[in-house]
Each structure stands twice: as C-alpha cells, then as structure tokens.
C-alpha cells in the first residue's frame, strides 16, 4: 500500500456541515481580528522606528581630533562696549592667549553701549579656562559692567537628535547681578559619541555646570571683573547608538500575537458555547 503524504497533515480539515456558527463566535472573531490588527500595527510601528540606546565606558572617544575640542560661545553683555570685550584662553599645557579674535564676531547692542560676542575656537583636552573680560583692552574702564546673558555654550558637533546637556548654560541670565562681580562657571565636560544606523559617528560633549559670583580685586586694588569658564574633562564617555528591531524578532512577535490571540479567543468561545449549551439543557429539563 503506497504511503499517503496527507497523513502528515497536522492541520486536519473539518467538513463545513459538521461545524456550527454562532453569534457569540462571530462577535469574538471580529474582536479577535481587530485586536490582532491593533497589535500588528503597534509592532510594525516599533519595527520601523529606530531606538536610541546609550552606554558608558572609559575611553578617548575622539582620537582623531588631535587633542582639541571645538567650542561655540554666544554671549551678550548689554552694558559693556564692544571695544572693551575680549576672549582669553589658558590651560595646563601652557597656552595663554589674551584677546583671541579668530572666528569671532562682536555685534553692538543698545546703540553701542552693549555688545554681543560670538566666537568659535578650540581648546586642548586638558583642564583650563577661557574667559570674557576687558583684559585685552588698550585702556581699562573705571567700572566695567559684567552683567550678561549666555545664549549658547557648546562643545564639539551639534547633536540635535539626542536630548542631553549639550547647551546647559543656554539661556542663563545674570542681568540682575552685581555689575562689578566676576562670574565663575565650573564645567565638567563629558565626551559623547552618537552612532547612526550606518555606523557613522559624530563627536560632541555634554557638560554639567556650577557657578559662583564674587568681587575680585587686582594687585593695584582695582576691581576687574570677568566671566570665567573653568573646565575639566571626565574620563567617562557616553555613547548613543541607533538600533532597529531585527526582522526575526518582528516575525516572532507577529506569530506570537496571531497564535496567542487565536488560542485565547478559541478558549473564550469554547467556554461560552459550552456554558450556553449547558444552560439550554437545564432549561429543557425544567420545561419537561
């Protein structure tokens, strides 16, 4: 007798004349299909969307930068003339630059009484500071007013896709402070790497900040205020990575949704049908 391959069929078919449709079964089937459609669309949205995960490790994330960090500074001093405003940079490697002017711009404010300083420069990856002051002016003013508003202070590349402290001082205002006071902003810079789906990396830096305000006197007894940004680098690197759910996991989830929903719906329908049949028998027993 030849072997019938149909014997391997685990999905045996039941003739339609042996099945019985019910209103309850139809209602459960409609709800089941709608529920599966909702779960499918939810999983499809999650599969298409990218997920950003982060990790921490100890490393020099940007070895190709030559030990430099790009800085972008935008600050307004509404009561200090642009001729008096200057940027000074110094660090523990011996750099001491007074009146840095490369890639910088000064925009007069308040009919020339104030100044908006915008500058892009680089700093070494060692502890140091840069400060806005009147130190580079040819003649020091009698009462320099260092009240200010910081519009932007960022390090490295601009990462718009990630929420973080990339511009922690943005919007900081000291317009109500003592005009003759110096301001110290102590920054802890954290290297940050962003890797997209294609493996391309962008390097930026987040930072935490603490600040203090005080009146500083020079050796001649004069008050020479400044806005200091003292920085140090953290050895910890934060890495953000774009990831997408793998296809096999998406298929597995869809199969689980369809199979699980059908199974649960079948159990519910079977229980309701069995209870209904039992109730009919009880009713018939009472009538007889």
Automatic annotation (TrEMBL):
Residues 110-269 form the Endoplasmic reticulum vesicle transporter C-terminal domain. InterPro entries: Erv (IPR045888), Erv_C (IPR012936), Erv_N (IPR039542). The chain crosses the membrane at residues 20-41, 247-268. Pfam families: COPIIcoated_ERV, ERGIC_N. It is found in: Endoplasmic reticulum membrane; Endoplasmic reticulum-Golgi intermediate compartment membrane; Golgi apparatus membrane. GO terms for cellular component: COPII-coated ER to Golgi transport vesicle; endoplasmic reticulum membrane; endoplasmic reticulum-Golgi intermediate compartment membrane; Golgi membrane. Belongs to the ERGIC family. This is Endoplasmic reticulum-Golgi intermediate compartment protein. It comes from Paramormyrops kingsleyae. The lineage of its organism: Eukaryota, Metazoa, Chordata, Craniata, Vertebrata.
């Amino acid at each position: 007798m030849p072997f019938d391959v149909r014997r391997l069929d685990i999905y045996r078919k039941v003739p339609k004349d042996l099945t019985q449709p019910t209103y309850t079964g139809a209602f459960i089937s409609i709800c089941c299909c709608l529920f599966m459609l909702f779960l499918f669309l939810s999983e499809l949205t999650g599969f298409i969307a990218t997920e950003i995960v982060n990790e921490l490790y100890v490393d020099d994330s940007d070895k190709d930068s030559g030990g430099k960090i790009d800085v972008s500074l935008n600050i307004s001093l509404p009561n200090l003339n642009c001729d008096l405003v200057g940027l000074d940079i110094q660090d523990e490697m011996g750099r001491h630059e007074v009146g840095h002017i490369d890639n910088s711009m000064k925009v007069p404010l308040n009919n020339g009484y104030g100044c908006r300083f915008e500058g892009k420069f680089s700093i070494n990856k060692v502890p140091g500071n840069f400060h806005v002051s009147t130190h580079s002016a040819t003649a020091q003013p009698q009462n320099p007013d260092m009240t200010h508003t910081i519009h932007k202070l960022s390090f490295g590349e601009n990462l718009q896709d990630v929420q973080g402290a990339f511009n922690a001082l943005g919007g900081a205002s000291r317009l109500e402070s003592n005009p003759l006071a110096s301001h110290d902003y102590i920054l802890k810079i954290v290297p940050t790497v962003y890797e997209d789906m294609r493996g391309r990396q962008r390097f930026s830096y987040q930072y935490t900040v603490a600040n203090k305000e005080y009146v500083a006197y020079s050796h001649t007894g004069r008050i020479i205020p400044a806005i200091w940004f003292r920085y140090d680098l953290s050895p910890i690197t934060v890495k953000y990575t774009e990831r997408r759910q793998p296809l096999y996991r998406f298929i597995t989830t869809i199969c689980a949704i369809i199979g699980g929903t059908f199974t649960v719906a079948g159990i519910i329908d079977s229980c309701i049908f069995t209870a209904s049949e039992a109730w009919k028998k009880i009713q018939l027993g009472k009538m007889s």
